[in-house]
Amino acid sequence: MIRIGYKASAEQFGPRQLLRYAILAEELGFDSVLVSDHFQPWRHHDGHAPFALAWLGALGACTSRIMMGTSVLTPTFRYPPAIVAQAFGTLGVLFPKRVVLGVGTGESLNEVPATAMAWPEQRERTLRLKEALALIRRLWREDRVSFEGQYYRTEKATVYDRPEEPVPIYVAGAGPLIAKYAGETAEGFICTSGKAPELYRDTLVPAVAAGRRTAKRGPESVDMIIEMKVSYDPDPARALDDTRCWAALALSPQEKLSVEDPLEMERLAEALPAERAASRWIVSSDPDEHLERIRAYVELGFRHLVFHAPGLDQEGFLRRYAEQILPRLRRAFG
User: Fold this and answer.
1) Could you give the CA distance from residue 96 to residue 67 in angstroms, rounded to a whole number?
2) Rounded Cα–Cα distance for residues 7 and 318 (Å)
3) Theoretical Cys-Cys bridge with 81: which of 26, 132, 165, 273, CB 3.0 to 4.6 Å?
4) pLDDT band at 171 (very low <50, low <70, confident <90, very high)
5) For position 257, what pLDDT does the model report?
6) 217: Cβ–Cβ under 8 A, 6 or more apart, which residues?
């Protein structure tokens, strides 16, 4: 059985508009809504960055069924882990068994402008994430937590409002070490589509499985999420053109590693040729082509597909996808 989600792009739309789209997604039969958590968007002009935690509270109050959460939040710099534990404890009480905490090691684009910090290397960011999650889990299970870590400390801290069953933690990553860690410890793994096929086939999926085996966990213990980047429009030219505003996603990790200014990120993205700007996306007006190109990810083991559309007409996308693609997916994969 597969689950089908909608990616709420907080970098592209303001909070009220984005909320309307997410509510519509539930009405049209989507199973989940995951929202990006950005302090700065990928581009300055026409960019947005609503506060994801407040927005999730509004989404929960306006819906009744969908799973919802972050994809992803960084619980290590802008947000101290104890505050993340408190926030998601509250969300978990308000909306029982509907909330997940999706986390990652972060990007300088979001953390540096808000903190004026020096951006650390990947190793430190990974160590911080593991320590932060260890603290969050303790705060969801214990009272009066005194924690002495390498990076974080608490003194007799208690999260007073938390659900009986802790909020599931989903770990995002694009490398084998973090994928294995997700398999060992997390309730879900998140990655994004459109990269080299061997990354998923030979690295990420086997690493999650290796982590599960190390921890003696079954295949169903980790929800395998992939954010599917799809541009689907009856007009092929428009489907291609819609990807331009997300061209930054085609930049390599090296090209955008220390870019903290949305104006500079926008400049780098706009310099890319159209073919490269669209390279991360499934761009097509043919529903059968979409199905076949999605099939490769499902057959690798990704059973939770969260669709991210690049265009401004999100309502049109949601209605077309619900009518023309979702039934095909469910017939093909259960």
Assistant:
1) 10
2) 11
3) 132
4) very high
5) 75
6) 183, 184
Q: Which amino acid is at 141?
A: R
Three-class HEC string of the chain: CCEEEEEECCCCCCHHHHHHHHHHHHHCCCCEEEECCCCCCCCCCCCCCCCHHHHHHHHHHHCCCCEEEECCECCCCCCCHHHHHHHHHHHHHHCCCCEEEEECCCCHHHHHHHHCCCCCCHHHHHHHHHHHHHHHHHHHHCCCEEEECCCCEEEEECCCCCCCCCCCEEEECCCHHHHHHHHHHCCEEEEECCCCHHHHHHHHHHHHHHHHHHCCCCHHHCEEEEEEEEEECCCHHHHHHHHHHHHHHHCCHHHHCCCCCHHHHHHHHHCCCHHHHCCCCEEECCHHHHHHHHHHHHHHCCCEEEEECCCCCHHHHHHHHHHHHHHHHHHHHC
Own/partner pairs, 274-279, CB within 8 angstroms, 24+ separation: 274/240, 274/244, 276/247, 276/250, 277/243, 277/244, 277/246, 277/247, 277/250, 278/231, 278/240, 278/243, 278/250, 279/194, 279/250
CA dihedral over 40, 106, 312, 58, signed as positive or negative: negative
Q: Which pair of structure tokens corresponds to residue 130?
A: 């593991």
| Separation CA 82–CA 273 (nearest Å) | 43
Residue carrying the six token digits 């608490």 = 154
Query: In Å, how far are 111, 173, 280 from 265, measured between CA atoms?
Result: 15, 21, 17
For 54-71, write each residue's pLDDT tens digit: 999 999 999 999 999 999
State CA 2 to chain mean position distance.
17
Q: What is the pTM of this model?
A: 0.96
Query: Which residues are annotated as catalytic?
Result: 38, 107
- Three state DSSP letters for 188-240: EEEEECCCCHHHHHHHHHHHHHHHHHHCCCCHHHCEEEEEEEEEECCCHHHHH
